[in-house]
């Protein structure tokens, strides 16, 4: 019998339906490029949504369909479009097709393997658990792991997506981790997927982070996953790789606070500042980076010292007082800046960056809050923003308190130009930052006392001569108490 690859496949009939082949093409004929594309097949098909267990609403990355895979060796694809394009007639048909697809996945050519993986992924998304159970029962887990070593980027991504869907089940996850090479090999393969910008690889590591198995946690520690993710953040080749690494790092730090310390030791603070500085960074990535920075500073006292450099101060100050910026993100950035301002020994240029970048924005926040206090009370709809807004105001006042104690010009501006001593103290008290409020009052009192001319002769009533502005400064400091 002649080889099925000895002659080219027949062309489809002219004018026929999209995706149909000529009568001469049997079921065993090799696939060929059809004029029907996933983009043209979306309309008119009903797509059954995935179950809630595969949704990660708190992930820092965008959906996996948003990542372009056009740089791979095969054409790009869309999960939603493939689900519509390869939708089976019934769940039973999809289940019966699983063994054949797995066979093609191992023994076919590269284009056949990609097509088989696309169909299997679409069947899993369309029919859910029945197809997933059939895939596991047919030994598909080990086949998919083998395909993670493929040279084709699109095939690796498809297999990673399928494995991530399957790994939502504890038993399947245990089978994946028991594959030849163990957890360490799976971690390395997923790390390769993250570098390719695969969101599903990051989500797979999130599943590992939540595992209660001591063997898995030991493998994660031995594999230095946190350090690996920090290095990926620092030199991410694409936005997708950065998002996948950030999402996984967030999951690891949320699961165990010790990973926050590992992140600080592994250079993660500088990597997160790079995320804030990225021009193509999404809002979700910025929010995740700020959250990790704030958690690290709150947990570890010396973490703020890692941010005591001019570039970090400038990047964080951009989020404070910015119109349209979420109040929670502004409050997080302001709290981090207050901690940086409190660092006793700073690098060269840090104090100037705080004065030039952070202080004006802190003054602006305090000034706007003081002006709003004289207006009508906020509407009931803004009650959700009340707590983060109070936190923002207290953090901005804390920045002022820290810098006023370190720079006489800041103190002079606070008393005479901005005249914000009283509202700043009130905001610190409302935010529970009593030590900062006391520090601010002592700094202004000390500055007001320094304005008194000690060399002037005493008057007969025992009052000393006061330098210009000294009486006003003393009065302002006294009224703020």
UniProtKB/TrEMBL annotation:
Annotated region (Disordered), positions in chain: 1-46
InterPro entries: ARM-like (IPR011989), ARM-type_fold (IPR016024)
Tree of life domain: Eukaryota
This protein's name: Uncharacterized protein
Organism: Chlorella vulgaris (Green alga)
């Amino acid at each position: 019998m002649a080889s099925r690859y000895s002659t080219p496949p027949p062309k489809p009939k002219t004018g026929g339906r999209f995706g149909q082949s000529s009568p001469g093409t049997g079921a065993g004929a090799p696939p060929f490029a059809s004029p029907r594309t996933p983009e043209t097949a979306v309309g008119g098909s009903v797509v059954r949504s995935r179950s809630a267990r595969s949704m990660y609403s708190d992930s820092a990355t965008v959906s996996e369909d948003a990542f372009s895979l056009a740089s791979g060796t095969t054409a790009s694809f869309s999960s939603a479009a493939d689900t519509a394009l390869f939708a089976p007639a019934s769940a039973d048909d999809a289940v019966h097709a699983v063994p054949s697809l797995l066979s093609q996945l191992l023994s076919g050519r590269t284009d056949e393997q990609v097509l088989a993986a696309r169909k299997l992924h679409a069947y899993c998304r369309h029919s859910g658990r029945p197809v997933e159970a059939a895939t596991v029962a047919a030994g598909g887990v080990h086949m998919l792991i083998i395909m993670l070593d493929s040279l084709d980027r699109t095939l690796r991504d498809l297999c990673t997506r399928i494995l991530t869907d399957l790994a939502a089940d504890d038993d399947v996850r245990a089978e994946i981790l028991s594959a030849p090479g163990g957890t360490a090999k799976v971690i390395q393969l997923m790390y390769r997927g993250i570098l390719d910008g695969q969101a599903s690889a990051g989500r797979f590591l999130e599943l590992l982070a939540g595992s209660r198995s001591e063997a898995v946690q030991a493998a994660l520690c031995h594999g230095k996953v946190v350090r690996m993710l920090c290095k990926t953040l620092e030199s991410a080749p694409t936005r997708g790789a950065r998002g996948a690494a950030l999402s996984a790092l967030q999951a690891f730090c949320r699961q165990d606070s010790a990973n926050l310390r590992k992140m600080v030791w592994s250079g993660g603070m500088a990597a997160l500042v790079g995320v804030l500085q990225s021009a193509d960074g999404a809002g979700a990535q910025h929010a995740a980076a700020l959250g990790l920075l704030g958690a690290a500073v709150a947990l570890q006292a010396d973490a703020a010292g890692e941010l005591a450099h001019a570039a970090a101060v400038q990047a964080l100050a951009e989020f404070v007082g910015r119109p349209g910026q979420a109040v929670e993100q502004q409050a997080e950035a302001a709290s981090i800046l207050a901690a940086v301002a409190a660092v006793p020994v700073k690098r060269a240029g840090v104090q100037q960056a705080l004065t030039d970048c952070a202080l004006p924005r802190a003054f602006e926040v305090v000034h706007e809050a003081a002006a709003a206090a004289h207006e009508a009370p906020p509407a009931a709809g803004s009650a959700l923003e009340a707590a983060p807004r109070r936190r923002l105001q207290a953090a901005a006042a804390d920045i002022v308190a820290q810098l006023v104690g370190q720079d006489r010009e800041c103190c002079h501006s606070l008393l005479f130009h901005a005249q914000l001593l009283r509202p700043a103290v009130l905001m610190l008290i409302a935010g529970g930052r009593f030590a900062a409020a006391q520090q601010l009052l002592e700094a202004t009192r000390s500055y007001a006392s320094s304005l008194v001319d000690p060399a002037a002769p005493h008057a007969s009533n025992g009052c000393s001569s006061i330098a210009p502005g000294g009486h006003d400064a003393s009065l302002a400091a006294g009224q703020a108490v």
